Structures are given as C-alpha cells and as structure tokens.
Amino acid sequence: MTQAKKVSLVLEDGTRFEGKSFGYDHSIAGEVVFYTAMTGYPESLTDPSYTGQILVSTYPMIGNYGVPHDLLDEGIHAHYESHKVHISGLIISDYSSEYSHWNAQKSLGDWLKESRVPGLYGIDTRALTKILRVKGSMLGKIEFEDEPVDFYDPNKENLVAIASIQKKEVYGKGQHKVVLIDCGVKNNIIRCLLDRDATVIRVPWDYDFSNEEYDGVFISNGPGDPARCEKTVANIKKVMDLEKPIMGICLGNQLLARAAGAETYKLKFGHRSHNQPVLLAGTDRCFITSQNHGYVVDPNTLSSDWEALFTNVNDSTNEGIRHKSKPFFSTQFHPEASSGPVDTEYLFDEFIQNIVDFKQKA
C-alpha cells in the first residue's frame, strides 16, 4: 500500500479526528451518521438512502473481502443495490488493503477512488460514535489540508429528486403489474418483486402514473426528509382513492403515512444496522431487521382508520403501519434486506396476495 495522505474529519461542533486516506483524495461535506452492521459494505455504500451522508462503520475492520463483480441481471446490478456508490464519504477504524473472496473484483479503496468518494481509516470510530449517540447525527466534513470545504446540510435539499431515476423503466414480464415509485429504490426490492411473478414499472418520484395500467403500487426507500416529497404524497392519495393494494418500505412507510394525514419527525441518530428488533402488533412475534433511516412516523397522528403494524423494541418508535380495512401497509425496516436478515421477506408475499385478491374481486 502506498503512503496514505493525512486527512481530517471535522464535526460541526469543532471536534476533529485525524486519519489517513484510502479512497479518493478530495474534500467533501455532509451529514455524519453511523451504522453497526458487521458485513455488507458493498450493499450499504450503493444504497441510495445514504445520499448526502458521511458513513461511519462501527465494525473495526472493513475491506477484507473486497468488492464484487459489477454484473447486470435482468437490467439491474446483481451485487449492488444501485448503479453507483451513493455515500459522500466513508469513515472506518482499520482498512484491509488485502482482500480475499471468490467474487471479489477489486479492493474497497480502488472502488472508492473510481467512484470519486473519499475514505478515511485510522479514526477512533468508537469515540466518534459515542459523540453521535449523545449529540445526534451531525454535519461534518472530510478535509484535506490543501482543500478547505464548507459544511453542507443535505437535509435542506430534496434528496429524493437526486436519488430517483429520471424516466420510466420496466423490468420483467410477470402477471402482476406493479408500479414502483422510485424514491431511491434498492435493487433487491426489484429482485423480490420479480421473483414473485411481477412486472415492475419503475417510475420517478414525482411521476403521475394515473394513466398507467397496474395492479398495485410499491413505494420505495430513499434519502432525506419525507416532507419534501409533496408530489409523491399527492400521487399516493390518488391510488388510495382507487383502493388498489399498496406496500411501502422505509421512506415509503413515511410517505404512505403522510398521504394518510399523519406526521413524521427526525430521530436523534437514526437506525442503521442489521439487528433492529421489531414487534408485530397484537402478537409476541419479534423479528430481527435491517434498517437505514433517520426519519420515522408519529403513530399518535394516525387517523382511526389506520394502526401501527410493527414497533421497534429498542426505542418504541414506529416500524410500520396498515389500514384497518383496505390493502395498504408499509414497513420502516427493509424486508428485502441486502444486506442483513431476511426474516420478514414474507411481507412481499402478502403484498402479492393482496394484488391477487383485489384482481379476483374486480
């Protein structure tokens, strides 16, 4: 490994961490957040929900299994969750420049350089994470000494407009036609729908799909504040009037809730991990889930027609909602995982069954 450049991570409260560069040598700014997953960095780095964020890994060593081959399967990347790296920067404790995996094509450092994304190692991520847990997610900047940069708050922008596709795309030829509202969708959501005999009609976040032929609507995950997606919420309300089946994930949970008249709010430091426990309403069934979000639904603002579907066991925040009589439901966690546990993938089956039942009634 060549001599690494010295670089700093500076938080908005003035805290400074000194580290070394293993990615692209370029100063950037964003929101500093942490995630506690042990594995799955290729999937996490390509998750559009991380748009505008500097990601801190709490697991001490990253990079030991490299980065997989960039292959396409049915029009989407086989091993990535989108077509590119979406994080603004990566902060880790120890970088493994040597990697070994049957599917590895390149090192993590080389991938970051190709993607023009800075990466820092040699940072005390334990101390950094303790600061973020106490003070909450903070603005920060990765700064090389010869390239100063100002702080930048990504939450002041409509990040969904950045993460979403620009024009409609169609995948598969299944019997169930699903409109997928792309707010920054992960590829495994598309894979899960294709595996269940669906034709996926992927549309931009603000696309009016009222003239499309479809059997159900899926609202994807995505970055940023759901309050900035007023056009998406307006289109969801149109579907609710038709009573066609709806399922949402992550940001999709928040947008469905807002379409139902509920409110959302920002968490102190969010949920970003593979081990978030959620409890299914009315049961003792607890599931371990993969999560990546900074905003949640306020269940106290749901109307009497709606109810909480899942609740987070750690902090009692909302993890999903459902309509009491119509085929609408959503989850704050990621049933498609990738990476993470797949305990709740059965929810895709329930969505497809709702479509089958609706078509039989029509």
Keywords:
single chain, globular, alpha/beta, 2 domains, glutaminase activity, Rossmann fold, 10-stranded mixed sheet, 362 residues, 8 helices, 7-stranded mixed barrel, 21% helix, arginine biosynthesis, amino-acid biosynthesis, Glucose Oxidase, domain 1, 23 strands, 34% strand
Give structural notes.
Its EC number is 6.3.5.5. This is Carbamoyl phosphate synthase small chain. This protein is an alpha/beta fold. The protein has 2 domains: 151 residues, Carbamoyl-phosphate synthase small subunit, N-terminal domain (Glucose Oxidase, domain 1, 3-Layer(bba) Sandwich); 203 residues, Rossmann fold (3-Layer(aba) Sandwich), CATH 3.40.50. It is built from 8 helices and 23 strands. Helix 6 crosses helix 7. The protein is globular and about 65 Å long. The N and C termini lie far apart (64 Å).
